[in-house]
Amino acid sequence: MKTSWLLTLAAAFCCIGGINADLVDDIVNAITHAVDCASCHALLLPLAGLALIGDGALTGTITAVCKALGVEDDDVCEGVIGDQGPILAHDLRSISPFGRTATLLCEATFGLCQAPAVNQFKFPLPAAPVNPKKWISSGREPFQVVHFSDVHIDRDYTPGAEVQCTKPICCRNWADAAGEPIKEAAGPIGSHSCDTSTSLIQSMLHAASIQENSFSIFTGDVIEADIWLVNQNGVTSNLKQFDEEMQTIMTNSVFPVMGNHDVAPVNSFPRNTSDGATSSQWAFDVQSSGWSKWLDASAIDSVQHMSGSYSILVPGRNLRVISMNDIYWYKANFWLFDSDNLQRDPNGILTFVAEQLQAAEDAGQRAWIIAHMPPNSGDALHDQSNYFDQIVRRYSNTIAGQFYGHTHRDEFGISYSDYDNRIAENAISTSWICPSTTPRSGNPAFKVYDVDPDTFEVMDARVFFSDMNDASFQTAPQWTQYYSAREVYGAAIPGGWPATTPLTPAFWHKVTEAFERDDNLFKKYLEFKNRGINVETCAPGACKDQALCQLRAGRSESNCQVTTPGLNFRRRDSEESHKHDGRHSTIDHCEGTGLGTILSQMPGKMAGANIEGLRQKLAEQSIQWEGVKHQT
Ligand SMILES: *[C@@H]1O[C@H](CO)[C@@H](O)[C@H](O)[C@H]1NC(C)=O
């Protein structure tokens, strides 16, 4: 039964005869005045009123606002909101607009609330052993592991198509731009502003497969960023095609993860408690078969029944790879906001990971965690990121590394035993974050780790890339070593870093201290981060402090990110300015242009908008709501 506020709402808005002009006014006013967390909650009230009328009323209204404000091209507004809006409608019908879940929703969509304080909870874990196993290297030669991520393959990439288009991704012949003169033609292999062509991904896989490597890890996001067009059929065939390419080209095993783009609508992995929700089971089914070449029977079963997560002992090695679907704590997965009841461990993923680590500890194995979204990212919900961090602390002697993608950047994160005292001695785990293949976020790249065969710790991380400015790129891309982490950063540590010592969490902490002292080294890091393209400027002061804080975090609550509308809009404004020089579109790299990116721009765009025109559009829209059936 619905709560009382819903009945009040229904009485106010859902009168026989449909919507009145008051609701239109309420919505326009509420969006105009949505400037802080309280007013965001207030905005959810009329939006919930629309959702009660039906999915169509809510999606129709938001679409009309999106178009009227010119947030995106009309087809993008329609596609994104048409796909993801019904999830938001389901949320708004299911929660109180004034509760904690609504605060999370306001943070994730409009960017108007801060993340609420972590719901403190001691995640239940068995006690640590009295005599933990000591991991000692016998000094044997390291073996190699390739890490690639965020391939975002656009099977409709069209050489010769416009690079400087108005859509979130370009290099396709968009119908609404037909006949317009081409300002910059897409190259045969790839272009910035565009996702990965088939020839580019095949070139990358070949380059990765000829690296000496024992196995590869792939940290997710197969699908291109045209998320306003994706559907189950398209995603299914794209996942299958890439699985086949990996099976054919990669000579050794690949251990993949689920990414937020590897489902349709984008990001949408409903929890198993979402009553009657469209399930994402089909995506798990596709991958449990698509990944079966590299997994054993138990892992294949787990992909299907543990929401895409699995655990596997690497053949011939004393190393367990635990692949975790962490999109169940990704902010832009709007299914996570459909209940006021706290769910500490959606779909049991954290419990599964803890069990696998316990099994590894019991068996004297080391473990690597692989997943899509890094837990220190601003995209990770604080609660689950905190609970996961507790697991990392408990099993830090077993975990030899964590490996992620999602941000498209070459970066890292450090977990500590004590976040009030982030020093090298307290550093207990490293998150290795892989740059993307998609050229949308810099020159395409992948990492090769040199791994100690006894301890499974990383001795060196070498990044390989293909320089798109090189003349050969558009005919036969060359993949060369860009830099070695040990070479560049080891030299910056006072006294150097001993050749036989792995790149430990303490090493990375000392690297952040070197960044603090030496701004030129920090600039070098920023250059590496995007592989020399669209390099961020991040000056000493607030920007650099936040960046260092985020590197010194293994959980999102400790990354010093503050959600403020001003900051959000400034960030997006600076992305806008890239768009004008044609190098970049308004894309949020992790989400693509999703419902969140669209909604977050709306309040800012109300200033200077034609409010009367918008009112009129919504009034026309409201006529269509008449007689719309409640579609819960
Ligand atoms: C959801 O998944 C968890 C973990 O596997 C399980 O314990 C729970 O019973 C499931 N709930 C439903 C409603 O299926």
From TrEMBL:
Residues 144-409 form the Calcineurin-like phosphoesterase domain. Zn(2+) 1 binds at residues 150, 152, 221, 408. Its cofactor is Zn(2+). Keywords: Disulfide bond, Glycoprotein, Glycosidase, Hydrolase, Metal-binding, Signal, Zinc. Residues 1-21 form the signal peptide. Converts sphingomyelin to ceramide. Zn(2+) 2 binds at residues 221, 260, 372, 406. GO terms for cellular component: extracellular space; membrane. Pfam families: Metallophos (PF00149). The keyword Manganese does not apply. Disulfide bonds join 66-77, 165-170, 171-194. GO terms for biological process: sphingomyelin catabolic process. SUPFAM superfamilies: Metallo-dependent phosphatases (SSF56300). This is Sphingomyelin phosphodiesterase. The keyword Metal-binding applies. GO terms for molecular function: hydrolase activity, acting on glycosyl bonds; metal ion binding; sphingomyelin phosphodiesterase activity. Belongs to the acid sphingomyelinase family. Binds 2 Zn(2+) ions per subunit.
